Amino acid sequence: DSFGEMTGYPPEDILGANHRFLQGPETDPDRVSKVSEGIANNENTRVALRNYTREGALFWNQVDISPILDEDGEVTHYVGFQMDITERKAAQQQLETERAALDRLLERVNGLINDVTEALVRADSREEIERLVTERMGTDDEYAGAWLGRYDATDDRVTVVQRAGIDEGVLAESLDVTADTPDARTLRAVVEEQESRTVEEPTGSLEGIE
Which are the contacts of 65, defined by CB distance < 8 A and separation ≥ 6? Predict the structure, then answer.
C-alpha cells in the first residue's frame, strides 16, 4: 500500500513487475547500474534515484537492496526497500545553493578588503583614500555605484564628496537628513547610530579639580 501511495501505481501494475517502470528521462543510468552490480556481487546496495510517479511527477527514491542467504551461505532471495527522500534532497540542494552563494560573497568581501587595504597603502592623503575606495566600489560589477559624504550637524545635511557610477541626476551634491524621504530616513538612522557610538558619558571623577 505504501509503495502504491508513493508511486501512484495500483497493485496489479506493481506485483510481479520489474520496478524499472519507475525510471524516466532524468533517471541516472550509472546509479541504476550500481543496483545491478550490487545484485551481481551479492552485496548490500543503496542508491538514490530520480524516479517518476504514474502521473509523471519526479521524486527522489532511495533504494536499498540486500541479499538473503541460506544455511550454506548461498543467496536465495533479495529484499528491497524504497523510500521517498524528495524533501531531504530538496533541503540538501538548498543548503548547497546557500553555501555556494556564501562562498561567492566571501570571495567578493575578501577581494574588496584587499583592494581597500592597497588603496590605504598607496594613498598620500585622506581625499585620495576616499577617491580610491569609492572608485573601487562604484566601478565594479558588484555594485550599482558608490558615494561618500560628510555630515554637518549644524544644518543636518550630508555633502557628497566622492561618487562613482552615480551621476548628479540620481544623487544631489547635498542631502537634507531631515527630509521625509526614504533616502533621508536611512541617512538619519545612520547618523543617529554613529552619534550614539561617539557620544560617551564621562567616567572619571571631577573631585579636586578647580
Answer: 35, 38, 39, 44, 45, 46, 78, 79, 80, 81
